[in-house]
Amino acid sequence: MAKESGLGWTTYQVDDSSGALQDIRTDTTSLSFATPRAVQDITGLDKSAMERLLLLADMTQTPAGVFDDGANLAHVVFKTVPSTSVNRESVITVSGQTIGSSPVLTFVVTDFPYTRAQSGEFTWTAPMSLANGLLPTWS
């Protein structure tokens, strides 16, 4: 497969509070996500370098974007974060590679802050952490 840029994402979907996946690429301007593994330090006193065991997998993501209160966009999807405790399914697809649909990954959204910059930009972020204990794997 050829090297590719981050342009032309196929999908970025997140559940709204009713559990319906919504494609929020239109007003999402950036997305960072990570799939770290925890480690346990098992270094004995007899070692000169670290020894570790791999532990549990995790996934976090932080979409960010511009305010748009149109139907099924990020504001509508995330506006209930302060008032509900609903886990959100999320699916990311890039160049035919998908993470979040098989297995279906759900996330807790821990905040939905807005920022109005001095220059006038009105932006949001939505930090999300894996909630359902399933292993985040690419298709």
What does this structure look like?
The model has no long low-confidence stretch (mean pLDDT 94). The protein has one helix at residues 74-78, and strands spanning 11-15, 21-23, 28-34, 37-41, 52-57, 60-66, 88-94, 97-99, 106-109, 114-116, 122-125, 128-130. It is mainly beta and 139 residues long. Strands 1, 2, 3, 6, 7, 8, 9, 10, 11 and 12 form a 10-stranded antiparallel β-sheet that branches. The chain has a two-stranded antiparallel sheet with strand order 4-5. The protein has one domain.
Short description:
With 139 residues, the chain is mainly β. The chain contains one helix and twelve strands, in the order ββββββαββββββ.
Features:
139 residues; mainly beta; two-stranded antiparallel ribbon
H/E series: EEEEEEHEEEEEE
Query: Percent of residues in beta strands?
Result: 35-45%
> Could you say which structural class the secondary elements and strand pairing correspond to?
mainly beta
- Tell me the total number of β-strands: 12
Helix content: under 10%
Stretches with pLDDT under 50, minimum 5 residues: none
What is the radius of gyration computed over CA atoms, rounded to a whole number of angstroms? Answer: 18 Å
Measured between the Cα atoms of the first and last residue, the distance is: 15 Å
| Total helical segments | 1
Global geometry: globular
Total separate domains:
1
Sheet with the most strands? 10 strands, antiparallel
Overall pLDDT level:
94
